[in-house]
Hints:
This protein is of the alpha/beta class and 249 residues long. The protein has helices at residues 31-39, 55-63, 78-86, 106-117, 185-192, 198-203, 208-212, 232-248; strands at 5-11, 45-52, 67-70, 93-97, 124-130, 144-147, 153-157, 175-184, 218-221. Helix 3 (78-86) packs across helix 5.
Amino acid sequence: MTVRAAAVIPARMASTRFPGKPLADLTGKPMIVHVLERVAKCRTVGRIVVAVDDERIASAVHAAGFEARMTDPAHPNGTSRVAEVARTLAEELIVNVQGDEPQIEPALVDRTVEALAARPDMPMATLVSPFAPGEDPANPNIVKCVTAVDGRALYFSRSLVPFDRDRAPGAAAPRKHVGLYAYRRAFLDVFVGLAPTPLERTESLEQLRALEHGHPILCAEGEAHFTGIDTPEQYAEFVRRIKSGAAAG
């Protein structure tokens, strides 16, 4: 089965922890362009649109040869920004790649899109991954996910879940959640119309809104080697990796 989705990448200037993040360019190109170049390698993605709130981001995207759309600056979150653009697209599957995932693996995007395409009973899908060596599962900046045997998400948390009380053989290991979502286009408007929920507010995790309102989330599985960039310190580490790789090459 051939799957062709549209990728919509929300990007805004006013990040609380890292203002101007999409245009950070200590690698020689803006971070949003790194993301675009990775998504362009996805075999399931036939169109890429950056949903922006600032003409400076749009200019950087256009200069790199990609498509950008100005969106309402009043959107409360990235999903709402994606939904605005998705209403104008023909593709039935929309993949939301975060604009701060400059080393997202294209194969993981494809895996998530294909997982949703294969499950018509599911309105949306996301990605979970084993923790990489050296990553701390107790770090609240890395979101954890627990799933049912059929792949549905049971819960997302910043706390360490599940708790291995008895350290029994075969116990479930914690898995990290990767900030990547695929939606059926019609469900995006349903999702953004849902009222915020208590668990969502408590954990500050928007995806919990879907679960609390009874909408399932399918979890694709893959091994993600990098997390998103939320802080200047994480960006500095990304820059170091890029420059080290260039020097090695």
